[in-house]
Amino acid sequence: MGLDTNLLYGEMFGSWLIHLSFPVLASVIIGLLPYQPLSTRIWMLLGITVILSAVTQFGLLAYLQSAACDGVKDYAPVATGTGIAVAITAAMTAIPLFVQPMRLAVSQLFVSHKAMLTPELAAFNKLMTDASLKTGEIISGTTTHVGGGLDLPKPLPPADYEEQTLKEMMIGASYWAAFAGAYGIGFGSLMNTTCPATTA
């Protein structure tokens, strides 16, 4: 028997879909735990994603060998293929976690990025809001506030900015991990589908 390319492509697509969900699941797990600093949560997100990927890739590659060789004949190439697949997943998932432009290139397709509300920006924001309200009073000829003011950007306090960052990381990691899952199966299968010789 040989490798069924249709099965390989099906597994690559399945791995793509499954890996898309891993960072989301990791974020849910992290959210259930006591608060941790952002740096710790980043490493937890990466670690949980890689662990889930290892289990999934091992199962998919073992099934590929089983289909190609009429059963799993040797787990060593399955483990080697899994190692390659997991290395790809870890590297590609780390990109949006540690490289902000690569993260924002994906996340801004779904959510708008807002700046952090630093003390200086908070003072400027208050000054501009007060000025816009004062201008509204002058124009309307009243002494009551005319709500709304200028359409100023709404920066986030540090805690909210941190949550925004984690959400952006989840979105970016999902995208990159999905492709890593597909590539992992493709490259991992190269080590995995040579069936050992059988004795007569």
What is the structure about, briefly put?
The chain has helices at residues 5-32, 38-69, 75-98, 100-107, 119-140, 158-188. With 200 residues, the chain is an all-alpha fold.
Descriptive overview:
The protein has a domain at 5-110 and 169-191. The chain is built from six helices and no strands. The chain has helices spanning 5-32, 38-69, 75-98, 100-107, 119-140, 158-188. The longest helix has 32 residues, at 38-69. It is elongated and about 90 Å long.
List keywords for this structure.
200 residues, elongated
Average pLDDT confidence is 81
What string gives the helices and strands in order?
Answer: HHHHHH
Low-pLDDT stretches: 144-152
Query: Quick one: biggest sheet?
Result: none
Number of helices: 6
Compute the separation of the termini in Å.
16 Å
Structural class: mainly alpha
What portion of residues is helical? Answer: over 70%
Our Rg estimate from Cα atoms comes to 25 Å
**What is the 3D form?**
elongated
Annotation, overall tally of beta strands: 0
How much strand content do the residues show?
A: under 5%
